[in-house]
Amino acid sequence: MQILTGLTVAVMGGDAREVTLVEYLAEVGATVKTYGLPVKGPNIVTCPEPEECLIGVQALILPVPGVNEQMELSSAYLKVKPIINEELLSLLPAGTPVLVGVARKPLRELLEKHALDFVELMQLDEVAILNAIPSAEGAVQMAMERMPITIHGAKAMVLGFGRTGQTLAQLLENMYAHTTVVARDSAQLARAYAMGLKVLHFQELIDYLRDVDVIFNTIPAPVINGEILQRLPSATLIIDLASAPGGTDFGKARELGIEAVLAPGLPGKVAPKTAGMILSRVVPGILLQKMGH
Ligand code: NAP
Hints:
Helix 1 (16-27) packs across helix 11 (272-290), helix 5 (125-146) crosses helix 6 and helix 5 runs antiparallel to helix 11 (272-290). By secondary structure, the chain is of the alpha/beta class. A six-stranded parallel beta sheet has the order 3-2-1-4-5-6, with helices on both faces. The chain has a six-stranded parallel beta sheet with strand order 9-8-7-10-11-12. Strand 7 (155-159), helix 6 and strand 8 (178-183) form a beta-alpha-beta unit. The longest helix has 22 residues, at 125-146. It starts with 7 loop residues before the first strand and ends with a helix. The chain has helices spanning 16-27, 50-54, 86-89, 105-113, 125-146, 163-174, 186-194, 226-231, 250-256, 266-270, 272-290; strands at 8-12, 31-35, 44-46, 59-61, 97-100, 117-120, 155-159, 178-183, 198-201, 214-217, 237-240, 259-262. It is elongated. The structure holds NADP nicotinamide-adenine-dinucleotide phosphate. Residues 128, 131, 135, 160-165, 183-185, 188, 202, 218-221, 223, 241-243, 263-267 line the site of NADP nicotinamide-adenine-dinucleotide phosphate. NADP nicotinamide-adenine-dinucleotide phosphate binds next to helix 5, helix 6 and helix 10.
């Protein structure tokens, strides 16, 4: 269905996820101006300069990771990454929708300063819940690659029972890992119990660390601290999914000889096509809503 006919959108930077998204937006009728993406086809216009990409568009889509601390556009394909600055954003009229996966503080401030109407896609439940599927699979893949034992029968802990923790715990349980969910919220613990999972309140965790093969952390706070690490068997593997800097004291883990791995951006790494399709499911609706349709 050509639901986006008449709409011109810029997609700047990104990786295979944005390639999938551009193809989809063009397929549903949008004219898509791209910068730094190897994608061609009907309705897709490749721009040699970022400035050109922004002229005459009704919305801008930035890559899932947005920009780095230096405001460089995230890109898997560009050798020289353009800086997203005032000059560039001033090409967009105030109120223009800007869709980005994650908007770190400097980008958020700049978008606010230019009165651009930005949406952080990764904050939306419909994106985060679906992204939990490739994230969970990727986390399990990382554990399988690093452990000398199978997931089946492994003693696994999942810290946090939000959108990612729920899907991950369910996947582990379905693979016959002995899965314990650790959370601080009694409703989340009740939900985990109802799903047949073992549960621990966060305050009890310290007493249950003697016999764990793998811990998956989804809590974006410093929860796996020195006190916890000291009680873990040194063979325990920690896969930390929480956004940077993660929830683990990695220095202390190294000191104790515990393998702890920060695992950012799993959907884009393990299943870029799926991750791009997840974006494709939600972005057209957001664009239509912003355009008042
Ligand atoms: P979420 O739905 O908000 O869930 C977060 C969980 O952490 C909830 O159970 C929350 O419990 C708990 N929590 C938060 N702060 C806590 C604290 N100080 N102490 C104890 N528990 C705490 O978030 P999500 O969508 O699952 O995402 C979780 C993290 O994973 C985020 O940092 C996200 O960016 C990251 N992530 C990473 C990947 C990847 O590829 N590595 C993929 C997806 C998400 P309460 O409700 O009690 O606060």
